[in-house]
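Now produce a polypeptide, keeping tokens residue-aligned:
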Amino acid sequence: MNRRHTHAGLGLLLGVLLLGAPAVATGQARRAPAPASGADTGARASRTFGTASEVSHPIQAFGFTGLKAADVAAMDANDFGARFCTAAACSFEAPLSLPAGALVTGIELEGCDTNPAGQLVLTLYRATPVESSLTPLTQVATGVASASGCAFLRGDLATPETIDNFNNNYQLEVVINGNGTDTTRFLTVRVFYRLQVSPAPAFAFYVDVPNTHPFYQFIEALRVSGITTGCGPFLYCPDDPITRGQMAVFLSKALGLHFAP
């Protein structure tokens, strides 16, 4: 069995699996609604997935709460779960629940607007409960006075938002302006984010892993998360080989492996 794997190498591998909770990013001003692109075909580019790429978090129309009872009742029997208004205008809201430290990069609205008098508007908000403030982070919308068709409408944050679930709440709002028919409706909202590792602390815990060490950030992330306690008092031994038993502990703790009895 080749055992040339080291604590430091595994620290780098597992570090990308961990989520940190850096300070809250500053709020961004509301951006002007963007015109629909690719509206006639509803086509969108293929995406790749992985630790370093964007992850898509979908919320179907069922997950949104309508602010008018008649609009809530209308969606179950029409258009396979799409939401639309039975009145001239209405709004739907849903909470956004992502792991702490996730870096939100953009939002996407999957909907149809075939009514020249209608419009779909999706906005991502950050709410600060203590201050009772609501900050729009980004917005995307179909065109005004045009029939944009069915499309995937993407809106990126000017500055990506690091999720801080301790101090903030996050919510999505879809506003439908139209004539009260299903010609203006939405089916799914997607939020795109990337996983991050917490920033390295200013002072080192292990004497053999100073803050100038190339794996310092990742080793500290393993320690703070409880995945490793090192190899002795204030020692990590970053260049020592790792056993299969130690690897089992690291992976089980990092992935939170749990099986019902």
